[in-house]
Amino acid sequence: MLDDFFTRAMVAGIGVALVAGPLGCFIIWRRMAYFGDTIAHSALLGVALALLLDTHVMLGVFAVSVAVALALLGLQRFGALSSDTLLGILSHSALALGLVVVALMTWIRVDLMAYLFGDILAVSKLDIALIYAGGVAVMAGLAVIWRPLLAATASPDLAHAEGLGPERANLAFMLLIAAVIAITIKIVGILLITALLIIPAATARRFCVTPETMAVTASLCGVVAVIAGLFGSLKLDTPSGPSIVAAAMAVFLLSLVVSVLVSRGANASSRW
Amino acid sequence: MEQSVQPLGADPTGRLMKADTLAQARHIGVRRGGRWLIRHVDITVRRGEIVTLIGPNGSGKSTCVKALLGLVPVDEGHSSIARDARIGYVPQSLVIDWTLPLTVGRLLTLTARHSGTDVEAALQQVGMRGMSAAPVQSLSGGEFQRALLARAIIREPDLLVLDEPVQGVDFTGQIALYQLIRDIRERLDCGVLLISHDLHIVMAETDTVVCLNGHVCCSGTPKLVAEDPEYRRLFGPQAAEALAVYRHDHDHTHADDGSIISGHHHDHVAEPDA
To answer: B203 at the A interface (CB within 8 A)?
Structure first.
């Protein structure tokens, strides 16, 4: 079954969407979209290092993502610059550094477009195994830190005062984001990963009243976007990564229209 | 009851704290940007006792509580919480972002698991029966404050910490809220640490008042504090009147809109008037 490239793409894409949903929810609850973007941008440096050291790309991306996340934590603690400035510095210098290193490795031909925008149709069986193994690990990790992380998201002081150890949960969450970006990079690429994390979660918000249902709904929205995007890309012969993100955007807009129609007369105000 | 200053230099781990002491700050100081927000502050909360922190805006009330709970590091002195003491915390002005969907019931189970019956019972105590499924973003200020209180008491805390719990609550609601805090204290035999800028109502239920203005101006029973010249200087001539009001069993003055007329004179601009 997995011999067909389209089936492999579908299986890989669905796996990534399932993991991206809950993580994406936390990213929008915690207003960390720019953080996700920064980690994603630094992924190219990870790709370059992985090729240089001849290891799997996911490993290189994960290592560099973790390093950037820790660097950010350190700079926040000791520096006087605001978080968004630090993120801007890290994000773009990591991307630039990645491009420079790739260019310096003249002996390796790197398909830059594949890493920037994803190359889901080239997904191998090993990639699928890594996506699902990594995905299960990320979900298990998230389940363990769910309550402290959620409490810390609602109020860090509250989580701290009531003994939930929010710093530990925050650190673990950063590692999980790094892991998700490592397994997602091949599907939608460095420049579009954040979209796959955020758009399905934003879509889910209007239809959910608890964090848990929103996490599940976000996963489902992501799966719909992957399926629609891949079939669209096959039909219209468009690049698959951007097609998936475009499909996610379409689902988001559709949900907006539906919820506006539903809430009209129900006296609920639109807040997006 | 007499409030005595705690001896300095005692064991910082709290092992030498008396058995009924839940939280203790000894001579704590917190410094930010070269300026002491609070300094030389001693606070002790024992089981079954209600301690109220009063003071003008910017007098370091919240900082004190946060230092005591370990939310901000102290630059001087020690603060400690009794080991295994369960804390129930009602923070000041908590805002739940709209992007985070949260029902009242889910808010109550935010930091620990509780059964549906426990959630319903806690909500009933704060007069929010049957509102478990309501999104927190749909609550009024007073309802949200009561939901936060329900969230703290469902934990059956040893130490209940409330940072300005009556913000946005109307006058009748405030009386009810303080009555509820007293009931909870009786039922759970917990210690209560309360921050308030409202002198009128708070006094009646309080065992110890700590009057703060960067440092402890005075502390003791409400009566003692009321007679303290430092207190009168800090809160102006009407301070005594506020306490007189307390002694005459809440015979307070109401403004036309139903709110009580504040008896203290410190700057209130940044605070929403109760």
So the answer is: no
Asked whether residue A207 is assigned to any structural domain, the reply reads no
Task: Specify the CATH number for the domain of residue A110.
Answer: 1.10.3470.10
Q: Does residue A137 form part of some domain? A: yes
CA distance A149 to chain B (A): 10
A154 contact residues in B (CB cutoff 8 A): 94, 96, 100, 102, 107, 110
ipTM: 0.84
Closest CA to A32 of A172, A158, A174, A230: A174
d(CA B209, CA A159): 27
Whole-model pTM: value is 0.83
Number of domains into which chain A is organized: 1
The radius of gyration of chain B's CA atoms, rounded to the nearest angstrom, is: 18
CA distance A117 to A119: 7
A21: in domain: yes
A232 inside domain: no
Domain that holds residue A182: 5-194
B96, B97, B101 ranked by CB distance to A214: nearest:
B101
Are A185 and A58 within 8 A, CB to CB?
Answer: yes
Domains of chain B and any CATH numbers: 14-86+159-166+185-250 (3.40.50.300), 90-155 (no CATH)
Q: CA-nearest residue of chain B to A202?
A: B99
pLDDT in tens, chain A (272 residues): 667 889 999 999 999 999 999 999 999 999 988 988 899 999 989 999 998 898 988 899 999 999 998 888 888 877 678 888 888 899 899 899 999 998 898 888 888 888 888 888 888 999 999 999 999 999 999 999 999 999 999 999 999 999 998 989 999 999 999 999 998 888 888 888 899 999 999 999 989 999 999 999 999 999 999 999 999 999 999 998 999 999 999 999 999 998 888 877 565 444 44
If you search the block for the tokens 């940072």, which residue do you land on? B163
- Residue B128 Cα distances to B147, B154, B170, angstroms: 8, 13, 16
Q: How many residues does chain A have?
A: 272
